[in-house]
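Try it yourself: sequence plus tricarbonodiimidic diamide, in.
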Amino acid sequence: MHPTISIEAEPYTFELVPGKCALLIIDMQRDFLEPGGFGEMLGNDVSQLRQAIAPNQRLLAAWRAAGLPVIHTREGHRPDLSDLPPAKKIRGKGAKTIGDIGPMGRILIRGEEGHDIIPELYPLPGEPVVDKPGKGAFFATDLHAILQNLGISQLIVTGVTTEVCVNTTVREANDRGYDCIVPADCVASYFPIFQEMGLEMIKAQSGIFGWVSDSEKILSALS
Ligand code: TIU
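Structure, out:
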């Protein structure tokens, strides 16, 4: 039996079971967070996303210190683009799109500098890194199998962006039976209104997709 840890959250207290809960960090990649990357090339303000780095560092350090499982994801595609849907390639009609040469190598291509995780949150050896071709971390990946094999039924979901890959992943996880809690300061959007509404949508209707809390509440419950 695992004792539960009560975390203050909305819409109500989240009962975290340490042996069944993983930290899932979504797409904290250089292409989304660093100046000169794909995100900025799309006209976005990366400083909005960078606010989530320090809270993620603190949560990740505590989670690792507690010996609990961490899983990282990266959005991207094979160098031959065989897993890139043509619709995704041409969406936005940008001068440069996924697979083209950007400031940090080919945009969102596995193995390129910009595709990799930012140094501040770099995975340790032994922490699974799931490469995902879509917005949701469960689509066309082995994430569900990894979580099942670890006996995980709860997820702390962090990363970027709140309304895109984080929300899609929380919805996918919810439909697969996982309880998700999202620390608001550990997720970020290029758009403040989407940050706010992305979190509202998760916790609305008595927690239709999950719970919302913040890193300080999780850290104080863990300590
Ligand atoms: N990881 C993720 O959210 N991918 C995106 O493309 N997000 C945007 O907000 N563009």
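One thing you can check immediately is this: The longest strand covers residues 154-160.
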